[in-house]
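=== RUN LOG ===
request id: a7f3
mode: sequence -> structure
chains: 1
length: 302
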Amino acid sequence: MKQRSALTWLVPAIAGLTLITAGVGLFWQAGAPFPFTTLRGETVQMYGQGLYRYDSYFKAPILRGTDAVVLGAGLPLLLLAFRLYRRGSLRGGLVLTGALSFFLYYGASLAFSVAFNRLFPIYVALLSVSFFAFISALTALDAASLAARLSARLPRRGLAAFLIVAGLGVFSIWASELIGPVLDGRTPANLGADTSLFTHAFDIAIIAPVVVLTGLAVLRREPLGDLLAAPLLVLCTLIGLVVIAQTVAQTLAGITFPIGVYIGMIGSWIILGACAIGLAIAYFRSLTEPASDPASLAAAQA
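=== RESULT ===
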């Protein structure tokens, strides 16, 4: 894996910006809820507290749960993977790429989904540096070389099946919430004070197709599929943690769901994350690290 000099400042920039966005979002809680009439004439209870005061009472705990995982799991994983990458570890580079995909998703969610607040310029900056860091890390990986280092121990069919099912599952979950409102002309249940649904659109348009196509590529033994599989497993693992944290945050805020929702939608995300962890372990166990080049390693650590 090539060493990218840009990552030496992009990754620390992501860490610094994340400490601001997630730290303020999670720990600033001054204020009180208030009612708000939407553009569609519906009354929605707004969170009214801290950074997410202008987001709905349903949505704000989701954002705070995400912030908790970003600080507690995402950021430590990013820094650990970056350290291993700097030491010349191929596994570290793959995990770093996956962590960066998570921060890219997080930055996009903040910039396009959160109600405008004082940290909007920070959101835009985080989205920008995460995007360029992800591209830099991804292009530093050589697909053909990586594929050659994967042994027969890799559960290729199981990995491919997981990715295909996960991609189709993401599509089905979000599409099921849109079909009725689109056909009937009514407002989606969880729209709240927003005017559109960023997560639904982004996951259906980008995430689901990428995951499914990667699964098919893994099944066909295409090098690009082997390369993308590891970062996607890391992303799925972190998203699984995010859904758990979001559910806990909403429960603490007094928001509960029918048992069918917990079992069906939320449970499926948790199972998705658990399967991703198991397959990620199997993937990295089947991967052989390249021999270290002392000169290159010294230059990278300089």
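=== NOTES ===
The mean pLDDT is 91.
The first strand starts at residue 34 and ends at 37.
=== END ===
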